[in-house]
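Protocol step 4 of 6.
Sequence for Acetylpolyamine amidohydrolase (Marinobacter zhanjiangensis) entered exactly as in the expression construct, tag removed. Do not edit the line below.
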Amino acid sequence: MKTVYSPLHHRRTATSELDGGVLIAPHERPSRAETILQRVRDQALGEIVAPVNFDLAPILRVHTLEYVSFLEHCWEEWAAAGKPGEAIPQFWPARGMRQRAPKDIDGRLGYYALGADTSITEGTWEAARASVDVALTAQELVAGGERAAFALCRPPGHHAAADLFGGYCFFNNAAIAAQAFLDQGAKRVAILDVDFHHGNGTQSIFYHRNDVLTISIHGDPDLVFPHFLGFEDEIGEGDGAGYNLNIVYPPGTPFSEWQQGLETACERVADFRPDALVVPLGVDTFEGDPISFFRLKSENYLAMGERLGRLGLPTLFTMEGGYDVDAIGVNVANVLKGFDL
Ligand code: Q9C
Ligand code: ZN
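Step 5 output, C-alpha cells:
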C-alpha cells in the first residue's frame, strides 16, 4: 500500500514535556516518523507520496473555528507576551468555574488543553496542518479506489477533540479523514483505534452520532492517560447510543488477551457494514514502550494487520503513538505487511 509522508513534521520539535515534575525531552519526537519512513522504504511496502495541501474546510468539519484560530496564533501570542519557554498550560476551567476562553494567553492555553504534557512551539501549527494534509491525501487515495493507504501522520491526532489539544495531539487526523469519507458520500465509517491509549478525542467528536462507529482498545483509564475518559460504560448517547465501544485491558496484557478484544472489535465493525474503515494506528502497545503497559511483541503486529485486512474494507491507517523509537518502524511495517498478506 502507499504511504503518505511530509517532511514538514520536522516543524514540530518541542524540547519540553512536563513529566514527573520535570521537563523532559518529549516522547513524541521527529525521529519517530523518520524511523517508520525508513522501514517502509527498506521493506518496499509501496510508493511513498507527498501530500496535497488542503484548506481549513475539512478541519472545520471536526474542530471549532475558535480552537483552530487559537492553535494558529498561540505561539506568536505566547512569544509576544515575552514568555521564556515553550507554551505549557498551567490553569484549567476546573469544577465550578466558567467554561469560557478568556483573553489572556495562559487562560486560553488552559481552556483549550486537556493536559500539560503537550507544549506548543514555533512550527507546531505548520506541522499539525501538514499532518492533516497527510491524512486527507491518504483518505483520497482510499476514496479513489485503493484498497488501503498509510498516512504517516506526525504529530498524532486521536486525543484531540473538537476544541482540545493534548496527549501530543492537535488536530484529530483520523476524525477529519472519517468525516471526509462521509462528506464524499459514504453512509457509514468505522474507526477502530488500536493505540495503547484511549482515543478520547475521536470518541467525543462522534459520541452523539450513528454514522461513525468508534471503537478503541486501550489501557484502563483508571490507571493511565487520558485518566478521565475511555471506560467501558461509555457506549454513546442520543443517536450515538450503541455506536461507541471501549475495550479496556490491565497492565501486562499480552497479545493473546489483546487479540480477543480485536476480534470483538472486528466483529462489531463487520456488523456495522461501513463503507470505509479508519485505523488510528499506535504501536505503543509494544512490550518495550516507555510510557505504556501492554506486552505485544513485534511479530504480533503482523497478526494484527492480517486480522484488519480480513475485514475486506477500504482502509485508512493514520499514525498515532508508539515511543520505543528503535522498534516503532518494525512494528508499524509489520501491521501494514500483515494487512496486505
Ligand atoms: N508520563 C499518543 O500516544 N502523556 N499519546 C503521558 C507519560 C500522555 C500519548 C506522560 C500520553 C499521550 C498519541
Ligand atoms: Zn498512545
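Step 6, annotate. The two ends are 11 Å apart (CA to CA).
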